[in-house]
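Batch job 17 of 40 flagged for manual review because the log was empty.
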Amino acid sequence: MARRLNVLVHCVYFPPEVGGLESHVHYLCRGLVERGHAVTVVTSLSRPGLPREEDLEGIRVLRTPLPSRTPAGWFAHAAGSTARTREVAEDADVVHAQAFASILPCALALAGRSTPLVTTLHTSHFLRLAARRPSAAALSKLVELSAHNFAASKEIADAGESLGPSISVEVLVNGVETDIFRPADGSATGARRLVVPRRLFPKNGVEFFVRAMPLIADRTDATALVIGDGPERAKLERLAAELGVGERITFLGARPHAEMPKLLLRGDLAVFPSLVEATSVAALECMACGLPVAASAVGGLPEIVDDAVGGLFPPGNPEAMADKVATLLSDPRLPERGATARKRVVARWSNARLVERHLEVYRELVEGTSP
């Protein structure tokens, strides 16, 4: 019988926070627990009223203060969480830093110990810093501290390996709980509804979707459901009204992650108008639900989306987006694309596959460092 591992994960955000990184870490940790391993997560007190310590689906969650939701706040959290991380690391077989800001507190917590450190590189923030010479030098020193590096997309892996000749990064696309995100029973309704599961920040490009909607409406009877909140919401609602599509676009705001499968299944096509993207967990979740995806050709999106499951369009181009969306909505084979998307996620990007690969790496490192 395989040895039971004690895994310590450090990540600045964790549920009830909603986002790709958060769901990735949550489902990875839950999958490890379901396979009989012990998991502790050190994360932030990101919202008022959250407990400093709790059990969440068998995961021990420890929270430390987060001064602000900014890069400075993330690093302040990292520094402030180091003592707690070191305390928990005493019993850990392996420590996993989820994103570059978690590497330093994990490395400091392991000082003088042989416990292996694993890092997963996520997010567009890492890409931007890796492209700048001063910050790239610091990132190089951080990433070199890990015994094994994962990346959520090939673009991120390439950026990580560009930091230094000794750095190796394994591409491991984020996984999806395919038992939770799955197609609905029964036949399609025939409704023409777009779903846009995007937080309303400039990098997610929702403004360009709103600008594309009048062009889409000229060719189809589609309506849209935007699922997510953010600082651009009021601006986008005004823009939709000014363009005459205010009644066609419903801004739902943020929704708990548990509600997402039901919401995604209300659509016929998912649209991801991102200007910057790593690998989109939300896009994979849509695909797992049997939903075709139209997406910007940026970042890691072309690694998961092609004509077989939907299609790509140039980022920041409402006309091209509208043409791709309208063409897909008029395609009688659209449900077939959704079925192919589902099969592809199950075969390549299920959370079960993700968990097993992590366990393979953990065990190799633990066996290699055990006395």
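Reviewer: the log was empty due to a logging misconfiguration, but the result itself is present. The first strand starts at residue 6 and ends at 10. Unflagging and moving on to job 18.
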